[in-house]
Design brief:
Elements lengths: L8 E6 L5 H7 L4 E8 L2 H10 L5 E5 L11 E7 L7 H14 E12 L5 H17 L4 H8 L11 H10 L4 E8 L2 E7 L9
Parallel strand pairs: 1-2, 1-4, 2-3, 4-5
Antiparallel strand pairs: 5-7, 6-7
Helix pairs in contact: 4-5
Amino acid sequence: MCASGKKNVSWLDIGCGTGKMYEAAAKRISIREFVFLDQSEKMLAAAKGRFSAETARFVQADVLELEERESYDVVTAIQVYHYLDKQDREAAVKKCWQALRHGGMFFTFENIAPNSEAGRQIYLDRWKRYQQEHGKGREEAQRHISRYGTAYFPITVEAHLELMRTCGFCAAELLWMSYMQAGFLGIKLENQTILG
């Protein structure tokens, strides 16, 4: 049975921030354990301040330090991996695969790269215009856009799916896409078994 059909799910949220994932998940499913993982002490303190459930555990660490194996039914990483270079991103996704139990589900939502230089320019121009329309000055918006390829490293949808397959996910799917963001699902299956 896949994780979405289980009760008392064990869940790891990488880059948990202030804990919005727990807030959404706890309303929908029974959680046996929810691990808030973030490298920021400030973010963990904010999450601790919001949630004091007995099922909660707070860990200050980088995903690359994660050593747990086959411990979780669900692992989430939302807007985390586009800050990593190619080698660290692969290591991070592999850590998520290792942390999941058989049948476990990995969800990640990330900034994505277009398939062409022309597409990249269209998307970045649109993003810059959007920022300016919502209060950022021209120079501030340009500084934000100029981080592309230097401070954050988006990859294409196909590169995301291929990375997940390379890291061991037998099922890797695109869940959602809008402009320069997309959501992906990976299911840890052994022997290519299809879950019911």
